[in-house]
């Protein structure tokens, strides 16, 4: 099926009108049975997987750009591009596309972008090629009208582009522009603005290559200065030539690379600053301009990456102590832009790019930048951006570097500690840089992106390193500000910084195990954190509560004993009482914490809260949380004081079989109310007796338990046990009153003398069958089949 193979990169246009890399592979064309037509196929060079399978449709508009690009639209909002490594490969695939569509390979676009009505299409196709008026001053108005009228029609737009290209019209227009500017012909300059803007909307690569050439681009920008809607012309050329200066921080010897950098900057400026914001209908008309800039950036990064001398000089000067501050500032900004450009690379090339930077020593260079640029806001910001690119690309690479350097350097100059210091020393009132750095630190300490191999575990090694060498630097502002009962500094910026630190510590509590636990308990961190509940800033007090809530949520007895030993609920309850009757987030957060202790039945904390703080909380009755805690505590004490009751509770929890609660409730009531006359003939009864209370010492806790709890599972097992008494004790129990029956039940329950165990073991079925065989007089089964099945299940 494969008749040609060429190396290509596959790109798709995303919703933000940016090109996304889909991979590198080899393209071929051939007939695909499933698609019923000749198709383009791209298979990945790494594993041979299919990157692209696209049928060459007769009506799809394919565009050839810059000799190595083919761009087309598969659907309304799905654009594709193939970037060829060699021009020959692009030409071969282009000839194949034109062959399928019956087009001349010399054209740069094969079809119209959208369909038109049949009548309009016939009129346009039958008309001869578009004829442009002479490029003269008195014909500029006619030309402007012609361009404006051609833009809505794809066919007329194509004819206009061909005419402009073939006649060399752009250079003629630019010559005319210089004449109008010399004559100060404002009307002619306004017409030229509309004409050049219209040529941009033709979206044709061949025209862009002429317009963006060195001899034409500044005049094109000059034409776009004279917007008729503005009272005065813009001064874009003055900015580009006088204000914006190209600085070679490292000399670039390749003239082609220099030219490409100049061109890309100017075209980017045209797109961002010169051209008016396109309307919804005009956005797609500038897709080729976006592509032009994108592929230029890819080419620039590739050429710089291949220049080993350039990169060697760059990092040598960055790390040289003799480099002055201004020079280092320029080098850092260049490196930042270099890393930003790398985001346009496809994943494989981006990997190679960052590996090259790593081998060149970007992380040691970053340390030098951070140490030397502590007081320079711009250098600090650029260094933060570079560090973010590295962490987002490969956090393991950064972790490995900082662990290796810890063996040689002091803690103060470790890269990760320098990052923490930059976060702490951020001078921005809104702490924008600190927020960004905190996010990067969170990525570095996140176990989810740490690797585990057969020989070593990155998580264990790095977390041990972090808590030994870095955690004291991170927590220093917190410990310094919480030496008393209230925060020593409670201004907004300090509170914001402490909130960021608490957010990272809370993350550690959630995702780390013994490392953070040992640190919190040994350094008494929670007590220090709870000092912040007295802050005047509610967001900081809530951060402190959130930190404690995460610790309690772990239900770890080591943490619980630490909280109880140091009475750490005291500042929380003090904050709750100081908040008064205000119904706010503080109130809700504290109540939720206590509610969690109650619902999860954290026994140690429940007892600690009630025994030490009940007097302060007993009057809070607008929620039932604290009364519920007291009830939990009383139940716990009662179980401790009555071990037999606790034993019965454990028995009742054994639910090997269950029955309908409502049915059992009715049946147990009926059994206690049954008189001797109501008993069946075949049932044996015991002789009447007085209302003895020989088991009164056992009756009292049972009666209290049944009256207080009335739990469903108690009723279920209680009634089931009554049925077993009726089944297994027919020959033993004489007629008796209700109280005697209950006394007999209690004796059986705790002494186990007359009946089998509560658990219905398989052997019991055999005993019941033998008993039924021996009892020849009784033909009636004591239980309905449905109940028997439930008991024996």
TrEMBL record:
GO biological process: DNA damage response
Occurrences of domain PP4R3 EVH1-like (ranges): 5-101
Molecular function terms, GO-annotated: protein phosphatase activator activity
Serine/threonine-protein phosphatase 4 regulatory subunit 3-like central domain: residues covered: 143-635
Annotated segments matching region Disordered: 759-793
Any Gene Ontology CC annotation: nucleoplasm
Compositionally biased intervals (Acidic residues): 761-778
Endpoints of the signal sequence: none
Function: Regulatory subunit of serine/threonine-protein phosphatase 4.
Family, per entry: Belongs to the SMEK family.
Designated name of the protein: Serine/threonine-protein phosphatase 4 regulatory subunit 3
Taxonomic source organism: Amphiprion percula
